[in-house]
DNA sequence: TACTAAAAGTCATCAGATGATTTGATGACT
DNA sequence: AGTCATCAAATCATCTGATGACTTTTAGTA
């Protein structure tokens, strides 16, 4: 478990309120005590209470209406789940995303439209090499390709989750592992497109799996140092 | 242009900051200007700046360190992605979760500990039938089993994503499709455990895939009505 | 050089005051 | 009675000033 490290008053006040809300002390739609009362309840100043409330508002648990009061919108934080995902280790996130790549390719082989294939071939051609326009731009083009594969699966939920992982992962990669991961292989990408276009789900899945394995291996090596 | 909504200063200040962060004005890990400077930049008082910063902190974009400064943690709000996931159709969410089941079983076959197998066998035994304690309780026990399979994969990110989908899906199922989905088959569940225990990833994946296919088919029929 | 102590910079918190908005009560008018 | 305007209370929104706590940098000393 994580240590209750140095926690500022506003955060602990917010946590207290969150607990009360989760415990159902105030029903959804009901009004919570006014700021002066919360000051007494929580034993902190008004500014701190406001910061705590502001945090819960931005998390979608509370809503403040000037002149009226502060109301409960929900009893649990809907974003808490993804927050926990973000706190899992980079390796697990990477593996989960790689898994999406594999299965999305499988679905894409079964469901792709002709337009999907056209798009994939175009992105593959545009992808080029790292020499064209710098590393950052190349990574963006590479991501666009993989995202298109997921999109060809026809499953929007998978696209959104994929985007989520991509955002979470690139944040970390950009700040810690910049440039230490192996170059994606251009030939392997072409095989992915062909496999999807062939309509063979197992071949498509295998092509992505083969491509992802060495990258994941390298990531494990980097993280174990 | 948006409606001339009345927006509190703290929210618009937070939005301004969010834009600057998204635009990359301050890199991830970098320090943003101190509170006094933000007061000048945003044209609001210090308390309001603090509320804006607090909102972004609770959204995971910023981090404040007393005595040091305020630092950028991420350039985009990951929770926004979550909302988009929730808005995708139930069928896609179900399929994405089923996919997690399949691939988690594959990983579980490779990485499971002896304790995992003990747990799976226990949950399988406890699972019983719908007759024991009512439908709600049975669904909970069934979910506990499937979650344990994902947990045996050793990938925490997958567990969290699985929980997220489960929560999102059961919200909808509970309100719209109550009782219209086919009963999960007890024999199929036993085969999943055996396949995982055997250590054969393909067999494990296939066992879950075989189990999920008819459920997804039935869901498609229900949703297409 | 290496270590320590002071100083500066920054966020954390408090207290008081005023403004803006909503809500409910009051009362006049139809 | 019913409707509407007005007013007062409640509540959140915001500003200002001050003090404390923590971190980082700098200066001084051995």
TrEMBL record, chains A, B:
Gene3D superfamilies: GntR ligand-binding domain-like (1.20.120.530), Winged helix-like DNA-binding domain superfamily/Winged helix DNA-binding domain (1.10.10.10). GO terms for molecular function: DNA binding. CDD domains: WHTH_GntR (cd07377). Keywords: DNA-binding, Transcription, Transcription regulation. It comes from Aquamicrobium ahrensii. Residues 7-75 form the HTH gntR-type domain. It holds the Pfam family FCD. This is DNA-binding FadR family transcriptional regulator. InterPro entries: GntR_C, TF_FadR/GntR_C, Tscrpt_reg_HTH_GntR, WH-like_DNA-bd_sf, WH_DNA-bd_sf.
């Amino acid at each position: 478990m994580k240590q209750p490290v140095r926690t500022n008053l506003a955060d602990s006040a917010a946590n207290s309120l969150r607990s009360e809300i989760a415990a159902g002390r105030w029903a959804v739609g009901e009004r919570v005590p006014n700021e002066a009362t919360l000051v007494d309840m929580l034993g902190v100043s008004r500014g701190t209470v406001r910061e705590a409330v502001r945090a819960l508002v931005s998390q979608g648990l509370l809503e403040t209406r000037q002149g009226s009061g502060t109301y409960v919108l929900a009893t649990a934080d809907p974003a808490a789940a993804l927050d926990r995902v973000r706190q899992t280790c980079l390796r697990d996130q990477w593996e989960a995303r790689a898994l999406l790549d594999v299965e999305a390719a499988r679905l894409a082989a079964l469901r792709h439209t002709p337009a999907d294939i056209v798009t994939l071939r175009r992105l593959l051609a545009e992808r080029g090499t790292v020499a064209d326009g710098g590393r950052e731009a190349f990574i963006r083009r590479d991501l666009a390709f993989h995202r298109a594969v997921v999109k060809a699966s026809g499953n929007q939920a998978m696209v959104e989750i994929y985007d989520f992982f991509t955002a979470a992962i690139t944040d970390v990669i950009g700040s810690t592992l910049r440039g230490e991961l192996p170059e994606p292989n251009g030939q392997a990408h072409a095989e992915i497109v062909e496999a999807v276009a062939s309509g063979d789900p197992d071949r498509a899945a295998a092509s992505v799996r083969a491509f992802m394995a060495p990258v994941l291996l390298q990531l494990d090596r980097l993280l174990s140092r």
